[in-house]
Transducin family protein (Actinidia rufa), 508 residues
Amino acid sequence: MEEASPTPRKRGRPRKDKPKEEREREEPAAAEKVRERADKKSHHSSAVDEKYVQWKSLVPVLYDWLANHNLLWPSLSCRWGPQLEQGKFKNRQPLYALLAVVTDGSVPNTLVIANCEVVKSRVAAADHVSEFNEEACSPFVKKYKTIIHPGEVNRIRELPQNNSIIATHTDCPEVLTGHQENAEFALAMCPAEPFVLSGGRDKSVVLWSIQDHVSTLTTDAATKYPRSSGSIIKAADNSSVGPRGIFLGHEDTVEDVQFCPSSAQEFCSVGDDSCLILWDARVGSSPVVKVGKKKEHATRTPNSPPGLFFQHAGHRDKVVDFHWNAADPWTIVSVSDDCETSGGGGTLQQTKDPNTAFRVELVDALTLQRSLQIWRMSDLIYRPEEEFKMREDEFCKVACRVTLDAASAKNFKEKIDDYYRVNMILDNLPVAILWERGQRKVFYERGFRVGFKGKSAGSNNERDFIHNHPNFKVMYHKDPETNFARVVGFEVTANRFCSVLYYSTHFS
């Protein structure tokens, strides 16, 4: 008779039960810690809610147009398509979004193509912009087509040469093979030729050609179904295409890839190894240029990045993707993810940089909100470069022309009676009026009044006047070595003369 095998020992250190008296002493302290954590979380959530309410109250001032489209399931990617139609007040163009990318299995993963009506600049009324519903679908986003997608999808990219072809990253068996491990986020399409670029956890960058995929489908269809003209779809189910090149040089996961706009053979990639690599497929699979991160001592990062001039805080969940609208400048679509497990949230911050970069700052989320938002900041915040030029004097510059009706005139009269002031900012410096009293007694008053009460020449009746011809003086400091200049002063004189003068100030 065989001896029974002993019960396998559990791995790890054996657990020692504490005495009953010791457990009773520790229970009140543990309960107090739980209450403290709950109070701290509740206080922080109320602070997040207060910030969101404050942002929502400023929507009519900050935005020219805003549309919120609530999603039933979280999405990880969003992309604009080409413009289809131009109207008098709205343009129509497709919008790609991934829905149900994280589900319980009861709902399949789908790629949704929607037709979006993009309202033109200075068309939407301020009260209409502010009245958006966070829990409803936007009337500007209308579903056009739904495609059942095999597996989860993290990124969408459209082929510039053919708007009907879209590439996605998926965890299912790939049509374009070449990666040894998962490739989740790094994906790009070439604007010059029909090439696809991808990066993944295997530390590699893989290049494919769409033409190779089309050739493979045609060959497989002719071999398997020589007499059937409708068999290409069936043959596509199991067709796979090998890469044109696999490029190795990263030491960690490749997080993003991008083609050169003018060349299909030149591209770059960035990874978790803090390296940016430039590649040229014509010279081989080795890096042409590799830029690593400079080792520096840890420093405290500021709350706001340098050059920040706009922050979109409409998402209370983590921002996972956004895309500029190439057909409509300053119009952006962004999407937030489900934060049930992380409890995070996010805002989009736009920096004043030649490349107009974006950063995402995570904050705690108050509620589960999976939203796709389309927004365009007010053009009163920015101005085109040709409208105001640095270090060039301008006189009688017409900023806008407005005809006041009776209601608007009455509104201005009430603002003048209540001593309302106009506040402006230039490079984070507020505009101010310079006052001089006596010798060497100078002080500044922020902003200038909307208007004043006075009498016209030859009349004894008091009337209301609007300061519609301000005189601005911008002071700057010029760097003698780089020829760059930075604004150091912003003054205004509310009078009947319109001019913009720049004065150079030098410091010892």
